[in-house]
Design brief:
- It is a single chain.
- The chain is mainly alpha-helical and 184 residues long.
- The protein has one domain.
- It is 78% helix and 0% strand.
- It has 5 helices and no strands.
- Keywords: Membrane, Transmembrane, Transmembrane helix.
- It comes from Virgisporangium aliadipatigenens.
- This is Integral membrane protein.
Length: 184
């Protein structure tokens, strides 16, 4: 610690900052788990709807269940992902400098919070993540809408619903791109 003794107030502040770090990391882990489970829930829901369509003799109107599920779960996934990133940003920009000011300058504080973002493959990982999110929450529901539209004469009311769903999916697509965190 640079040879200098820490004052009692610095020790207390340091303990509080470490406690905050532990709590916020718990929140981050919880949100990561929830986010990942949202992805799996979307897969399971899509599989269930497709199975129902096949069991019902190919009733294409059931496919209209996939876009709203994809929108709701996609938005939930995205907001949890954004919060996970915001927590990491807070740790890097708020907690780390405050704790670093208490300990010696030459000691690494929460080094992992920066190191994993400095990886040379971060951009390719983020691009792959974006592609997977698009396949799950944008491409899959749009494919189901196209299948519905190409099927023999969609009902006019359901056709209007499907157009609204398509707009919702496209809005989600824009949000996914806007919230993508490419920064190191």
């Amino acid at each position: 610690m640079g040879g200098a003794a820490l004052a009692d107030s610095d020790i207390t502040t340091g303990r509080l900052l470490l406690l905050e770090y532990e709590r916020i990391k718990e929140e981050q882990r919880s949100r990561i788990t929830f986010r990942d489970n949202t992805f799996y829930a979307t897969l399971a829901t899509m599989a269930a709807v497709i199975a129902a369509v096949l069991q019902a003799g190919g009733t294409p109107s059931l496919l209209l269940l996939i876009p709203p599920v994809s929108i709701v779960l996609g938005w939930t996934y995205l907001m949890n992902d954004v919060t996970v990133s915001a927590i990491g940003h807070y740790i890097r920009t708020e907690l780390t400098p405050r704790l670093t000011a208490i300990v010696a300058d030459d000691e690494a504080v929460f080094g992992w919070e920066r190191a994993h973002r400095a990886d040379d493959r971060r951009v390719s990982r983020k691009a792959l993540q974006l592609a997977i999110e698009f396949m799950m929450f944008v491409v899959a529901p749009l494919i189901t809408l196209v299948v519905y539209w190409l099927n023999d004469g969609p009902h006019p009311g359901l056709l209007a619903v499907s157009v609204v769903e398509a707009v919702g999916v496209l809005v989600l697509a824009v949000q996914i791109v806007l919230y993508a965190d490419w920064s190191r």
